[in-house]
Request: fold
Amino acid sequence: MSTPPQSTNLNMLPDDILKHILSLLPTKDAFRTKFVSNSWVPLCESLNVLSLDARDMTTYKPERTHFFQFMKAVLLSPRHPLKAVTLFLHYNVQKPCFKLNRFVEAAKRRGVEDLDIYWYCGVSSPSIFCSKTLVVLKLWGISVLSMVGFSIDLPSLKTLVLCDIRFYDLDDLMKVLYGCPKLEDLTTNGVRGKSGFMSTRYFEPLSNLIKATTWLFEDRDTIRHVEFLTLSKPSQQTN
Reply:
């Protein structure tokens, strides 16, 4: 007779493995495991990979309030350093209900390295482009306020994805690129500006660029070192 398979008690697994398993779950589901055992509480609170998803959230006010209270507890409470944060917000979540900059600043204070934000119709301060620790930054659907008076500083950034982003001025986009001296992988799609023009002088620091999917480079001499290049068609700019 064959021996029946033995079940494994999750509490017997090393903490590093348990934390890896929890990091694969949506953060809200991961925190529910605290009810399994008191020993899981510190595991949840030490997670360095967070995924917060509000895309299925309804306009029901108590539901929204509960979600943002959870976000506040997870991001604003001082805990361990963060490696990655992914944030999905519904397009109905408007600025009065959600202070994006507050949570971004909290993630940056905890040394976040990978930041992905999906928020169509969202609005952000230019300060989102200032971080000593960010290595990967992916933004979707956000409008960025004017960069007048802001200094862009992303000294460690290697991957930048900007999709359906609206800048106050196209020159602001160039300032972002200028502030990424170590950039290796660039993707832009549907990036717009109310006005302005792009100057090739901002491409000078991009000597480390290896891969680009973008419409920005009309002058091929500025990117002759790029190994993988896809020139996408620019979106029509609107006021």
Summary: Strands lie at 49-53, 84-88, 114-124, 136-144, 159-163, 166-167, 185-189, 192-193, 211-214, 228-231. The chain has a mean pLDDT of 77. Helices lie at 15-23, 27-32, 41-45, 61-76, 100-109, 170-178.
